[in-house]
Design brief:
Number of strands: 0
Radius of gyration: 23 Å
Structural class: mainly alpha
Largest sheet: none
Length: about 110
């Protein structure tokens, strides 16, 4: 029988040292602290961008290490990246639409006699 590149069900998995998971955990905790500190700084219109960048880095670390994305083949990475590309398109649409919106005018409440 010819050797194939398909994964068999008999595979044990990837042996990853616990120290790697600990380093990723520390990095995620550090990025959580950065998120908290960034929330206290007014970056103007860049608040959302900063929050999304930090969240994206954290999500990427989780996918790459904890979900073992590091060891997947290209077709799986295609399936992983397609939702991120669609999300980037949607977020880009919001950012391109927002500057063209007019500021809402507060309602003026008048008292009736």
């Amino acid at each position: 029988m010819a050797h194939s590149n398909h994964h068999s069900h008999d595979e044990i998995g990837h042996v990853v040292p616990e120290s790697l998971f600990f380093k990723v955990l520390l990095t995620l905790l550090f990025l959580t602290a950065v998120t908290i500190l960034a929330a206290q700084v007014d970056l103007g219109k860049w608040n959302i961008v900063g929050a999304l960048v930090i969240a994206s880095v954290k999500a990427s670390l989780v996918i790459y290490f904890f979900m073992h994305g590091k060891y997947e083949n290209r077709i799986i990475w295609t399936y992983i990246l397609i939702p991120f590309i669609l999300l980037a398109i949607m977020i880009g649409g919001v950012f391109t639409d927002d500057p063209f919106r007019s500021k809402p005018v507060p309602l003026q409440v008048t008292q009736q006699p």
